[in-house]
Structure formats: structure tokens, C-alpha cells
Amino acid sequence: MAGKKSSGKHYVSKGERPSVKRSTINAVRNSHSEFRKLGNIIKAYTKGQNPWITVPNPNTMERNKKFIRVRTNDWFCGNDNRDNVYKMAGS
């Protein structure tokens, strides 16, 4: 076991617990406006990505699921109409 000896001066955290309070993390996450979130989704979609979006459930009989998550390619017109993101698939 010849070689470097371990030194107590250089402690490295294992990263097991967060160093910031959960309430602070939630406050920062909730500080983004809905307009900013939608802008980020549209920006990602026009770049060619396929992010998830939350939309009202079209099946009103499912009372336990008021909103569902769908991919933007399914909700908008698909891959061929990325320049017109304001036109929905049903239109």
C-alpha cells in the first residue's frame, strides 16, 4: 500500500442531500410565468425538438384526469409545419 496517503484536509461531499431548502427551490421553480414556459416550449419545438405539453383532456368522461401530457408533434400539425406552431392538429 505504498503511495499517497489520505489527507483529512480535502473533504469531498457525497452529494446525498441538497444544500438548499426545498421551499427555496420550489419558489424559484414557481416564479416562472406561464408565458415564459410556453415561450420555452415553442422555442424548443421550432428548433426541431419534441417537448411534452400539458393540455385539457378532450375526453370529459375521465373525471380523474382533467389534464393530460402529450407530445407537441401530436398536438400541433407534426414535423412538416414547424414554422406555424399556432395551428393545431384539429384545425
Structure description:
This protein has 91 residues and is an alpha+beta fold. It has a domain at 34-91. The protein contains 3 helices and 2 strands; from the N terminus they run ααββα. It has helices at residues 22-30, 34-46, 72-75, and strands spanning 52-56, 67-71. Strands 1-2 form a two-stranded antiparallel sheet. The chain is elongated and about 65 Å long.
Number of helices: 3
SSE ordering:
HHEEH
Shape: elongated
For the CA atoms, what is the radius of gyration? 23 Å
Largest sheet, strands/sense/barrel: 2 strands, antiparallel
What are the segments in which pLDDT stays under 50 over at least 5 consecutive residues? none
Count of DSSP strands:
2
Structural class: alpha+beta
Strand content: 5-15%
What's the end-to-end separation, in Å? 72 Å
Notable traits:
two-stranded antiparallel sheet, 91 residues, alpha+beta, elongated
How would you summarize the topology of this molecule?
Layout: H1 22-30, H2 34-46, E1 52-56, E2 67-71, H3 72-75
Antiparallel strand pairs: 1-2
Short description, anyone?
This protein has three helices and two strands. The chain is an alpha+beta fold and 91 residues long. It has a two-stranded antiparallel ribbon with strand order 1-2.
